[in-house]
């Protein structure tokens, strides 16, 4: 055994720290880091995707941000998962300790990646650490479906969503900035938490959607109507709308600012940002024997100067 190199001897003398399978993985990581150095000089899709894999936490699969932790064998872990693994490396079960992986943190800092909404039209390239912040505000990020009360999970840009509402949900589409809409239910006592079909209005070369639904406000059943703007919040603020409902010589009027569909339908409803009608009042407005809900809502949308 005189041929064993002093280096190999050294390895065998500390079997707890470095045993062969993990050693292999450590070497593998080293290779990836070398690739990264090249990718900074010469961008290369294959290399940057392998670096991105390196920056993926093996536990939660999210992108890792400083502090990135590692075990004695070099397995990495995100700071969110570290407290959850009871100080055991999830890859090799060795004690985790408190070692930061500065090399990987620096590699990440040197990366520049395209915004994840590139396919939606964003051409931005961002440093790894500021990419997340950009993406949370990127104007190209898709909108969630504005359709409430269904299992619809569609996302996309506004033209796509408008087509989807029209073709797949058969929503009412109206042109013009004034409207007159009827909401009828033959048994209003069965419609708590009911949502009526959305109506989409097209005016000022924009799209707005009118929601009307019943919900329980504390103990009281109420109806709420509100308008949402199909676009971003900063543009929604350029518009105002009014809603009017009444009957038998009484009427209620609401004037508001349409909310961006970035805010969920539920968020708008739960902030009561719309015309709220008590059920008793709604039945009074409906006339007749209070057995049927028959509300006529008139509205107008205008652009603020
Ligand atoms: Zn994690
Ligand atoms: Zn490990
Ligand atoms: Zn973007
Ligand atoms: Zn849908």
Task: Describe it.
- The chain is built from nine helices and 17 strands.
- By secondary structure, it is α+β, with helices and mostly antiparallel strands.
- The chain folds into three domains: 17-110, Zinc/RING finger domain, C3HC4 (zinc finger) (Herpes Virus-1, 2-Layer Sandwich), CATH 3.30.40; 111-141, Herpes Virus-1 (2-Layer Sandwich); 143-303, Sandwich (Apoptosis, Tumor Necrosis Factor Receptor Associated Protein 2, Chain A).
- Strands 8, 10, 11, 12, 15 and 16 form a six-stranded mixed β-sheet that branches. A four-stranded antiparallel β-sheet has the order 9-17-13-14. Strands 2-1-3 form a three-stranded antiparallel β-sheet, with no helix packed on it.
- The longest helix is centred in the first third of the chain and has 22 residues, at 20-41.
- The chain is elongated, with a radius of gyration of 29 Å.
- The termini are far apart.
- This is RING-type E3 ubiquitin transferase.
């Amino acid at each position: 055994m005189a041929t064993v190199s002093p280096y190999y001897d050294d390895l065998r003398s500390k079997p707890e720290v470095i045993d062969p399978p993990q050693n292999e993985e450590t070497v593998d990581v080293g290779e990836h880091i070398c690739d990264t150095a090249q990718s900074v000089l010469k961008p290369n899709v294959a290399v940057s995707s392998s670096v991105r894999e390196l920056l993926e936490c093996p536990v939660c699969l999210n992108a890792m941000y400083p502090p990135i932790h590692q075990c004695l064998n070099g397995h990495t872990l995100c700071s969110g998962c570290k407290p959850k693994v009871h100080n055991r490396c999830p890859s090799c079960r060795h004690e985790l300790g408190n070692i930061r992986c500065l090399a990987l943190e620096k590699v990440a800092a040197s990366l520049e990646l395209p915004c994840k909404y590139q396919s939606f039209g964003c051409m931005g390239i961002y440093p790894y650490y500021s990419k997340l912040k950009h993406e949370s505000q990127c104007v190209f990020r898709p909108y969630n479906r504005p359709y409430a009360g269904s299992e619809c999970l569609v996302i996309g840009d506004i033209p796509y969503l408008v087509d989807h509402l029209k073709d797949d949900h058969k929503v009412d589409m109206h042109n013009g900035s004034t409207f007159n809409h009827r909401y009828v239910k033959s048994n209003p006592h069965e419609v708590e938490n009911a949502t009526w079909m959305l109506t989409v209005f097209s005016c000022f070369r924009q799209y707005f959607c009118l929601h009307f639904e019943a919900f329980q406000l504390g103990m009281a059943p109420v109806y709420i109507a509100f308008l949402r703007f199909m676009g971003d919040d900063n543009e929604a603020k350029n518009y105002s709308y009014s809603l009017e409902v009444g009957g038998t010589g009484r009427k209620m009027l609401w004037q508001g600012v349409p909310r961006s569909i970035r805010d969920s339908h539920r968020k708008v409803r739960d902030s009561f940002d719309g015309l709220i009608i008590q059920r008793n009042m709604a039945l009074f407005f409906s006339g007749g024997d209070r057995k049927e809900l028959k509300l006529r809502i008139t509205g107008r949308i205008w652009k603020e100067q």
